Amino acid sequence: MRPALKALAAQTLVITGATSGIGLATARAAAARGAKLLLVSRNEQALRALCEELKARGGTANFAVADVADLASVQAAAARADELYGGFDTWVNNAGVSVYGAIADTPLEDQRRIFETNYWGVVHGSQVAVEQLKGRADGGTLINIGSVLSDQAIPVQGVYCASKHAVKGFTNALRMELARSAPGVSVTLIKPAALDTPFRDHARNYTGAPVKNPPPIYAASLVADAILYAAETPTREITVGGGGRALVQFGQHFPWLAEPLLAWAVPLLSRGASEPSEAKDDALYKAGRDLREHSPYFGVRQTSLYTAAQLNPRITAAVISGALAAGLVMLKARDSLRIHGAKREAVRRYRANAEARQPVQD
């Protein structure tokens, strides 16, 4: 059964990690389109400011303070959505943290903390969301934020890559299980490429130098668009950013070349010129203190044809069909010209042979 999802303006969304980067961009975009919101993060001050901002623009937003690593606080957030709105239609597991540095240089305590947030946070949110959504007649949507690094690991962010690989495995397995037990629940994995979010500013850094995301860099708004599309349209997976998809394809098809090249290039491409002036203390164990969608990057890509193609499958199918049809017409035309040319050449040769056979008159 294909889930029948509501229009966004008729939905209530729960968004974790709502006060920064992807979560913040999604909250603003969803409120602008009429959705009701329950915003979740560890930063109560930022949550209050964001709700006031969205309400001033005519939106409907409330908040719940929660650390997704703590199951009880995630359950309390779901109960808050039920209290305020009578439940929710879409749950977005977006909260995440990272560390820059070699795996050997990253303390085990920090590695466990990354998994507590990135993996167990997704598990907690998914279990709470599915428990409520599967009992609804109209189903709903669970959206988990992975990464292109869910498919292709890179150095410098090895522990983060491992956590996102785990998110992908969990999400895909859960989707298959729900296909039998709760077919009305849509489960989507969204895999962004490198973004212009404060991700690097909130990450713990063991490299001893300023860091940045390797290019190409895409706008956070592209991920927000993908999330809101998935909230309305049952979708298995969306990759945001063609550059990220190219990296994955390169790694999958040419690992013998990709791995040594990435081992050399990624540490170089991850070096920042200087720390951004807005950078705060890392958010590995405590809430980030700022309310920002972006971090300073040059040459941020505001569009992605690859992502747009995924969000507009009918148009994409029509364009591909048109291109194939045009190609067939061109092939047929070429064949017709070739056949016509062959016929003309045959006639020319026949006439030349006929003239050669005519007797010479004295």
Task: Output the keywords.
single chain; 362 residues; 12 helices; two-stranded parallel sheet; 9 strands; Rossmann fold; 12% strand
What does this structure look like?
The protein is α/β, with parallel strands linked by helices. The protein is built from 12 helices and 9 strands. The protein has helices spanning 21-32, 44-56, 71-85, 108-118, 120-133, 158-181, 199-202, 220-232, 242-253, 255-269, 305-311, 313-357; strands at 12-16, 36-41, 60-65, 90-93, 99-100, 140-145, 185-192, 204-205, 237-240. The strands form 2 sheets. The protein has a 7-stranded parallel β-sheet with strand order 3-2-1-4-6-7-9, sandwiched between helices. A two-stranded parallel ribbon has the order 5-8. The longest helix has 45 residues, at 313-357. The protein is globular and about 105 Å long. The relative contact order is 0.13.
From N to C, what is the helix and strand string? EHEHEHEEHHEHEHEHEHHHH
Q: Give a short account of the largest sheet.
A: 7 strands, parallel
Q: Number of helix segments?
A: 12
CATH topology of the largest domain: Rossmann fold
Whole-number count of domains? 2
Oligomer: single chain
Query: Averaging pLDDT over every residue, what do you get?
Result: 91
- Share of residues in strands: 5-15%
Q: Cα-atom Rg, whole angstroms?
A: 27 Å
How much helix is in the residues?
A: 40-55%
